[in-house]
Write a structure and sequence with these properties.
disordered N terminus, 3 helices, 15 strands, disordered C terminus, 328 residues, mainly beta, globular
Length: 328
């Protein structure tokens, strides 16, 4: 029974939770990847960036120097429909590889926003997609003294389940707050395990996230700002995860510091550039503090590139927020 529980927990926590092995899309530069875990953020730019069709590319190599450690690559595309009055549309696609598990996630999302005050926008979003999980048992290592585990498949297997996500997102000139839920239907992966009557133990748990941040303008002709941000993630399987970050922007340079507060798992240093109001590129290095890094050679690396296309409906006011020398 213990081996069965371990396999199921491994699948849910490491192999199937959407996008990231540990939890749903846990990453260091989370303010720049909000749409990846909150469908309500579709079509909403990060503070100070231009509104319009956006492409975000992402790569994370977690726990380097550990065999089979998580690696994730993918990206998203989102855009306002028309001038945004008809809402926004977006798609996400990520491929996660963790030891014997590979996980493909794809979804489409729609959000609709309401103007709040002079600069605020409250958006409601929903996303629908699928998760395809593949398991290669030849790479699964466990103690076989008691014989083969009856739950562990003997041949490579895969399973596909639908997932439903939803969220709320508020953003003004200097503030963003979002709450999102993923895997709201708690899909079962019994078919992947090749077992029956596992009940709720084979369900992917709902995951909830809460994010927020505020940009403080530091003057210097509008070129400098400081943005503290926080992200809380919670489900019924894992302990809550809390990440706190602060980003200092002196155009075009962006420097950030991130700390995982629960268990003090890692400290991250981020450096990037908002080369203009349309293009952002960033790199983050996380140093691991837990027992996985007993030899001192384990770290995580993350890359984010985001580009917004200029259209006839792009908001010129956003352009001046980051580049005060732009006159159009």
């Amino acid at each position: 029974m213990m081996r069965t529980f371990t396999l199921i927990l491994g699948l849910v926590v490491w192999g199937f939770a959407p996008v990231f092995g540990q939890k749903a899309f846990q990453n260091t530069m989370f303010p720049y990847t909000q749409f990846a875990y909150n469908p309500a953020a579709a079509g909403t730019p990060f503070l100070g960036m231009l509104e319009g069709p956006n492409v975000m590319l992402f790569y994370r190599n977690q726990y380097t120097n550990i065999e089979g450690a998580p690696q994730i690559a993918g990206g998203s595309f989102s855009m306002p429909i028309g001038n945004g009055e008809a809402g926004s549309f977006g798609v996400n696609f990520f491929n996660d590889q963790i030891g014997p598990f590979s996980n493909i996630m794809a979804d489409v999302a729609y959000s609709f926003g309401l103007e709040v005050g002079a600069t605020g926008k409250l958006s409601f979003g929903a996303g629908f997609g699928f998760r395809q999980v593949k398991l290669d048992p030849s790479q699964w290592v466990y103690n076989q003294d008691g014989g083969p585990d009856p739950v562990l498949p003997l041949a490579p297997t895969s399973g596909i389940v639908p997932v439903l996500n939803a969220g709320l997102h508020y953003q003004s000139d200097n503030l963003f707050v979002g709450i999102a839920g993923q895997n709201l239907t708690e899909p079962s992966i019994e078919s992947l395990l090749g077992a029956e009557n596992l009940g709720d133990d084979s369900n992917v748990p709902r995951t909830f996230s809460l994010t927020g941040g505020y940009r403080f303008d530091l003057g210097v002709e509008g070129r400098s700002s400081l943005t503290p941000a926080v992200m809380l993630q919670y489900d019924l399987v894992n302990i809550p995860q809390v990440s706190a970050s602060v980003y200092w922007n002196y155009a075009p340079l962006v420097v950030g510091l991130n700390q995982r507060l629960v268990n003090s798992e890692s400290t991250g240093l981020m450096v990037g550039a908002m080369l203009n109001d349309r293009l952002f590129a960033g790199y983050a290095f996380d140093y691991i503090w837990n027992s996985l890094n007993s030899a001192g050679d384990v770290s995580s690396h993350e890359l984010v590139v985001s580009y917004t296309f200029t259209t006839s409906t792009s908001n010129p006011r956003k352009r001046k927020d980051i580049n005060p020398n732009t006159n159009d």
